[in-house]
Amino acid sequence: MAHIDYYFSTLSPFSYLAGTRLEEMAGRHGATITYKPLDIMALFPRTGGLPPGERHPSRNAYRAQDLPRQAKKAGMKLNPKPAHFPTNAAPSSYAVIAAQNAGGGHMGALVHGILRAVWAEDRDIAEDEVIRGCLERAEFDPGLADSGLLTGAETYAANLEQAVAAGVFGSPFYIVDDGQMFWGQDRLEDLDMHLSGTL
Q1: Most CB contacts within 10 A, which of 4, 67, 97, 196?
Q2: 81: how many CB neighbours lie within 10 A of its CB?
Q3: Under DSSP, is residue 125 helix (H, G, I), strand (E, B) or coil?
Q4: What is the pLDDT of residues 105-139, one digit of tens each?
């Protein structure tokens, strides 16, 4: 049975556009997933990248065209200039970590709910009320937003170090336990084919 380490930022529009396709394919193939939210703004300079605000204008112009195209292709609502971006991703990331440790809910629904809050609902995922709502809708205890903060902070920092060591440089990034790596929501089909043994 395959295992997938899923590295992502709760601020990433491309992670939002992945929807819950990872969870659906993992279910089909009997694969397991470890969710590893990380500080994408700290990852970029350590792996040769730049945050969007510091990129060359041509790169940002392409991003501005590509995001709406990808959203339309996926049939998903997207605000390319959300009201609360960037914001502090740590609280929502800690909640993901706490939920994964606690179990009992739907991790894919939680992660997608947080991402949807940013990119489709113009909500601030740094706010406790928003995080609690995402936890509750994914059938987790909303109190997880306030618990395990030290563990969350330690794991969040460890995820970044593990990502750098593993060769991760963007979000979403998927690493299968056989060493195969897939970057971007537009590579999910390749990941699916790999899990099926056809690629």
Answers
A1: 97
A2: 8
A3: coil
A4: 999 999 999 999 999 999 999 999 999 999 999 99
